[in-house]
Write a structure and sequence with these properties.
Layout: E1 7-9, E2 14-17, E3 28-31, H1 34-42, H2 49-66, H3 70-78, H4 85-100, H5 106-132, E4 139-143, H6 158-167, E5 171-177, H7 184-196, E6 200-203, H8 208-213, E7 219-222, E8 226-227, E9 233-236, H9 239-248, E10 253-256, H10 280-283, E11 284-285, E12 288-289, E13 302-305, E14 312-315, E15 318-320, H11 324-329
Parallel strand pairs: 4-5, 4-7, 5-6, 7-10, 10-14
Antiparallel strand pairs: 1-2, 2-3, 8-9, 9-13, 11-12, 14-15
Helix pairs in contact: 1-2, 1-3, 2-3, 2-4, 2-5, 4-5, 5-6
Length: about 325
Amino acid sequence: MALPSSLEWTGVSLKLLDQRRLPHQEHFLDLTCWQEVAEAIVAMAVRGAPAIGVAAAWGVVLAARDGADLEAAFSGLRASRPTAVNLGWALDRMAQLLADSPEASVDQFIALASWIEAEDRRLNQALVDHGVALLSPGTRALHHCHTGGIATAGVGTALGVIASAHARGLLRHAWLDETRPRLQGSALSAWELGHLGVPCTVIVDGASGLLMRRGEVDVVLVGCDRVAANGDVANKIGTYNLALAARAHGIPLYVCAPGSSIDRCTPDGDAITIEERDPEEITSMHGESITASGVRAWNPAFDITPAHLISGIITEFGVLRAPYRSALADLPLADQR
């Protein structure tokens, strides 16, 4: 069964799959101004760093069409999620058009946003092809968070590798961390793999070590929101713990990172801003409190996995190996030092 598209430009609005309603309802938002796009990003109606970047590009188109203050639009969209570099990657390209052509037409903004969306699809597919080449028949893969087709404009990144491995007869099973506190693994990854007929099982995040100890995992595949110049990676909270467990059990962990997620201007993981979200995401579930009144909670949305725990970074250019600083520096990425 085919997956619904994560987003679609209708010519007058941005049609966006509301990921908050999944897996029970496929509901689409009809966004008609840049402020609605920014709110959808903040509220996590759209998730996945690549999809966030593409959505922001279309948000700029809406601002240009409406004759809105473009500087305010760029600023508001850029502030909607601080950790994912894809957001800045897309907005920087839209801003460059304005810098080069202050009188740029709406059609020019539409053409550039269309290119950004198409480029995301191309990067995804090339990355997936390189990732699948790493896997052997009978692979049992463990995945954290959600990195599938609806997290991008294309086939996805890490989950795209898993789905493609299944299609090519290489995958035996996929294990999916539920991914607290927003449960992307159980709500989105399992839904997406179910759509595609991929055999999978959801586990609580803390069960991954036991699963590895029992010899049930051959490889860990994760996505990322930002790769620093030294190879440190920001990804959904819990990735660092997973990397430590994988290293302890001698299991390779690969990070799937399209070029739009690579940030050579950030020296290392310590320089990456970690988004902190509402503690209520931890203290309640589906609107119901699960802690005593007054209990405090800390809710970082991401963590940093040091480069030395990463077996390889899968990109559209191929699989990078340590030392990552030199491997990343050699990539032919546009507009990066």
